[in-house]
Every structure is written in structure tokens, then in C-alpha cells.
Amino acid sequence: MSEKTRGGVLLFPHFSAERCGHLIAAAVHAALDSKSPRVLLLGVLHALDAELDDARKRVAAGGDPSEHESWGIQGPDLGGLKHWEREFSLSHFQWLWREECARRGVTCPELIVRYPFLAGGRPEQLPGIAELENLVADGVFLVATADPFHHGHAYGDEHPIEAEAGGLDAARESIEEGFRVMSKGQPQAWQEHCLGAKSDARDVGQVILHLCGPMNGCIHELTWEDMSEAYAVSSPNWVAGGLIELTAMEK
């Protein structure tokens, strides 16, 4: 991997703006402060319908991603599938991006929005990955979203604990374990970590590893949100995320 493709990535969460809006804003400021003329923004494509959910489950169980029509990278101006049009993971960032550019009185840098899906341990084979390789090689500023820890009855945990009763400590440990996985630079191992941690970063993380190589991680701030009402089930059910910096490791 060339030196041009080795850099860093800033990750932000995507639950409610009330709980994590300040972290999303920090990512917006970092991208604008970089003075980069182009920003690559990677979003999580959630399984919002039965087709996507089935594809994700089959690939997680070891199935071939290429057997599914949804395999690849979606986004504006690409044509092809339009699942991304219903996706919410980048909505807060994009709104804050426009507002902050207006507040600063500057023309927004080019924002290239992409949603990888079904990396399946082989992100280098994703349809559309060549575009991202070229962008990163040219020095684009890279920022992405992820909620790396989900916990509770709604997520299949039989004996869940409250976030403020030790749960957030468990989330931090899980995220830091993910850093150790990323430091080895193995996309398949990252996918397996995400399945165990109930992290929605499985595709985004694999693409980052492919583009930037093995990464070190640092949590700048960690927060959480209760999801019991959203799922209409008894608590505890919550998601944790934070402002996370990933830095490419020295050779």
C-alpha cells in the first residue's frame, strides 16, 4: 500500500442529535478545518428492508456477497441501487455541514457520500471500491460514521445491563478490543468482531482497513442513548458511540 493511502479517519455516532450532536459537529469542524477541497464521507447502510436484512445475515454466516444485488457501494450520482436514499446515518452530519459552511461564509468543499454494503471480509472486491482508492490516494479527507456497540433485549442479549450500571464500561472495553483487531489489518477478523459487539461498523470498518491499512484507535468521548422506546421493548436497550480517531500505523 502506497504512502498516499495511509492516513487517519474520524468516526462519529449517528443516534439522536440531542445525545451526540456535539460529536457530529466536532467531525464537521475537523473536516472543514482540514481545508481539504474534497471530503469522503462513509455512511452505514442499515438493513432497512427484508432484502437487505437477508443479504446481511447470509454474508455474516459466510455466504458469498456477490450473490446479492445489494453488494457494493451506493451513493449520490452513482446510479444503480437507491437504498441509500432512505438511509439516516449521515443525515445529521449533512445538515450540520451545510449550516456550518453557511455560518463560516464559505463555499462547501465537495462532499462525496458513499455507503458500502456487504464487504464480507473482502472489501477489495466491492464494486465501486476503485473510486474510493483513488480518492484516498489523492489525499481526500476521510470521515465516517459508526455506532460500535448495541446492547439489550432488542439486540438479543439475555441478561443486559444498564449503560450507567457498568454497561458503558463494557462498551468501552469492546470498542478498545476493536482497536486491537484493527491494528492487525484483517477485514475478516473485523467483521467477526462487529458481529460479536453488535457494531454497525462492519462494512465501513472493512473499507477503512482496505483504504488505510492497519489502524490505531483513540476514543475522544463516549456517550450512549436509550433505545427501549424505539423498539417498544423493556429496558435496558441502548447504543453507545463516540468521537473516535483512527490513525494509520507506522510501517
Description of the structure:
The chain is of the alpha/beta class. It has one domain (3-248): Protocatechuate 4,5-dioxygenase, Chain B (3-Layer(aba) Sandwich). It is built from eight helices and eight strands. Strands 1, 2, 3, 4, 5, 6, 7 and 8 form an eight-stranded mixed β-sheet that branches.
Write the layout of secondary structure elements.
Elements: E1 8-12, H1 17-33, E2 38-42, H2 50-60, E3 72-74, H3 91-104, E4 110-117, H4 129-137, E5 141-145, E6 149-152, H5 167-182, H6 187-197, H7 202-212, E7 215-226, H8 228-231, E8 237-248
Helix pairs in contact: 1-3, 5-6, 6-7
Order of helices and strands: EHEHEHEHEEHHHEHE
Inertia-based shape: globular
- Would you count the extended β strands for me? 8
By CATH, the topology is Protocatechuate 4,5-dioxygenase, Chain B
Under the CATH scheme, the architecture is 3-Layer(aba) Sandwich
Let me know the largest β-sheet: 8 strands, mixed
Mean pLDDT: 94
Instruction: Please tally the helical runs, counting DSSP H or I stretches of 4 or more residues.
Output: 8
The percentage of residues in β strands lies in 15-25%
Helix- and strand-based class?
alpha/beta
Distance between the termini: 10 Å
Radius of gyration: 17 Å
Count of separate structural domains: 1
CATH first level: Alpha Beta
Return residue spans where pLDDT drops below 50 for at least 5 consecutive residues: 1-6
How much helical structure, as a percent, in the residues? 25-40%
